[in-house]
């Protein structure tokens, strides 16, 4: 960004002129979602003011929700929020595409493991039964949005791992096993701070919270087909419960 001339005689405080200049750059996309602002020193040099004046301008934009200050990391333009409704049929790809944004999934790992007590209980299996574990990273517009670990009954879904790796879609992969539709049995939502792996994959500061969901999906006969835990970047997603799209079942 080039130097910007301020007017000391305009009747508008210098810090406000700086805030308006930055706000305009955000609006026209010069500072896009997720962009990091120059340092206070760099901005002070650009506007030919002291750091206190810059700090007040940044604080005003932060209070208005137009900038996000992360201690020890810098100041960023907030990213566009993904509105993610939790319904009986929650489908990541469809939700993202309905918002006219681009979804993508990267498979990080697949392996057969033995179900511990929690996994077994949620999938209605015996403890120690073989399950397929899939770790994946989901993106919206090339920005990571969630890191997930999912478990599927290995006996029922042999070779599901390669199918998901090929289609990059659980829904499409399950169709190969005759499951054209399935529904959400339960979702539990909690908030927590990210661990080192989550911070790295989601490009998230260690002091930025995660929204964690724990889910169980079942087929139309009520049999569990997936138990999964996902960590969503808390500043990039808004989880909502869409009551109008929930259906009561006996």
How would the blueprint of this fold be written?
Blueprint: H1 14-28, H2 40-47, H3 51-63, E1 68-70, E2 74-76, E3 82-86, H4 92-98, E4 103-114, H5 117-123, E5 130-140, E6 143-153, H6 160-167, H7 170-175, E7 182-192, H8 196-202, E8 210-219, E9 224-233, E10 237-241
Parallel strand pairs: 3-10
Antiparallel strand pairs: 1-2, 4-5, 5-6, 6-9, 7-8, 8-9
Helix pairs in contact: 1-3, 2-3
In short:
The protein is α+β, with helices and mostly antiparallel strands.
CATH topology of the largest domain: Chorismate lyase
| Name of the top-level CATH class of the largest domain | Alpha Beta
Fraction in beta strands: 25-35%
Total individual domains: 2
Number of helices: 8
Rounded to the nearest angstrom, the distance between the terminal CA atoms is 61 Å
Shape: elongated
* Main beta sheet strand tally, sense and closure: 6 strands, antiparallel
* Helix-strand sequence: HHHEEEHEHEEHHEHEEE
Supply Rg: 23 Å
Mean pLDDT: 90
Order of strands in the sheet with most strands:
4-5-6-9-8-7
Fourth-level CATH superfamily of the largest domain: Chorismate lyase-like
Report the structural category.
Answer: alpha+beta
Q: What is the architecture of the largest domain at the second tier of CATH? A: 3-Layer(aba) Sandwich
The level of helicity is 25-40%
- Count of individual beta strands: 10
Low-confidence segments: none
